[in-house]
Amino acid sequence: MSEIEAKVKITPRSEDFSEWYQDVIAAAELADYAPVKGCMVIRPNGYAIWENIQKILDQEFKKTEVENAYFPLFIPHEFLKRESEHVEGFSPELAVVTHAGGKKLDESLVVRPTSETIIYDSFSKWIHSWRDLPLKINQWCNVVRWEMRTRLFLRTSEFLWQEGHTAHASENEAEKEAKLRLEMYKNFVEGYLAIPVISGQKTENEKFAGALRTYTFETMTQDKKALQSGTSHNLGQNFSKAFNVKFLDEKGENQFVWQTSWGVSTRLIGALIMAHGDDKGIIIPTKIAPVQVAIVPIWKSDEEKKEMIGAAEKIVLKLQDVKFKIDKRDQRPAWKFFDWERKGVPLRVEIGPKDLEKNQAVCVRRDTGEKIIVPQSDLADKLPEILEEIQKNLFDRALKFQQENTHEIGSWEEFKNTIENKKGFLNALWCGDSSCELKIKEQTKATIRCIPFEQEEVLGQCVHCGKHAKYKVIFAIAY
Ligand SMILES: [Zn+2]
């Protein structure tokens, strides 16, 4: 084992999935734990993925009449208390500032765990008439939730996200907006991150603190758990009543607005690692990869070095819309190959003296390890093709995995056995009763991840209590 291989040893997934996850993040130099427990340093390789996520989503938001703004990090503690469910839900995780400027503050401040309260305070000043609606605002920021058990990207005390907040004149419009945002996330995660999602409504137990209804999309990790990867909330008038966000309708009557909020975070990077990574490290899908092609010239002498780098530079001149990097580092080729693998670059192109003689290059796919020899004159056409195949293969592979690990459950015995021995997503009938859901959680750790939107006619009995079933839902052990 070479020096670098020893330094970045990755525990196999089959041995310890959680160790594997940590090792992959370290090997790809995505993030580190910070001196403050539970906080995360996002390194350039990790941040570049986040920047791509931001860029694409930001464009989508702007296409649909959303404007960006920025609200303060500090929120008067009293604001959170105005919506009773909201404060109850968030209190255990709050970081509270009691002293500043060398003095005890008259009123304590909360470091935002989410910004509904402070944004809706502004909305109450901005919105006057039906002409001001709909109002659609997004902010890219950090939030703080003091977590006891943390894991890089999945659950940290501070994380980066976007939070969209909208206000509407009618309940129907708000409902449409909440669903539109969920659909937008789903398309993004499936289309760019190549991760298949299941989506639907959260149960009362699992919904956002202060929402009327929460919609969610969940992804499956390779250890067959569910990862809530983003949510969209129909807030109804809960917050508009607490923050007095009113408008004069067309008849001149005062009404409270109907609201939504929705967000995705750096957790998506965790979802990506857990969906696609292998025992060599992370695999980044083409469409989100900061570097899509690593071109590795191979040389033995200084003269060859010049020649091979020259050949690589000639190749890239012809490339269009491909994000590439020519690896000019003075390291052994094997070291470089290994380095690009652990960093998850979708495609590697090798050019050595023999390849140059034959006017060819060797392409190596990160997802399958397959080597493809391509004539140099075809590279400009062939590379985008292979990159697209990689994107598609990653999605297909993840979808197959999700399907293979989704089980139809008929009885409570089967439920318990499946959760214990197979895990995955369990489709089962449920009575709709919150206390029954909690009992299932106590006994098996499984929770209802979502109530899928499209319900066929539900006939039968609740998988746990045997009462008349109202829904067919998806259970899983969640991160
Ligand atoms: Zn039940």
The CATH homologous superfamily name of the largest domain equals: Bira Bifunctional Protein, Domain 2
CATH architecture descriptor name of the largest domain: 2-Layer Sandwich
Report the end-to-end length measured between terminal Cα atoms.
34 Å
Q: Tell me the number of strands.
A: 23
Fold and architecture overview:
- By secondary structure, this protein is α+β, with helices and mostly antiparallel strands.
- The protein folds into 3 domains: 274 residues, BirA Bifunctional Protein, domain 2, CATH 3.30.930.10; 96 residues, Anticodon-binding domain (Rossmann fold), CATH 3.40.50; 71 residues, 2-Layer Sandwich (Translation Initiation Factor IF3).
- It has 15 helices and 23 strands.
- The strands form 5 sheets. It has an 11-stranded mixed beta sheet with strand order 3-7-8-14-11-10-9-22-23-21-20, with helices on both faces.
- Strand 12 and strand 13 form a beta hairpin.
- It is globular, with a radius of gyration of 25 Å.
- The model has no long low-confidence stretch (mean pLDDT 95).
- Zinc ion binds next to loops.
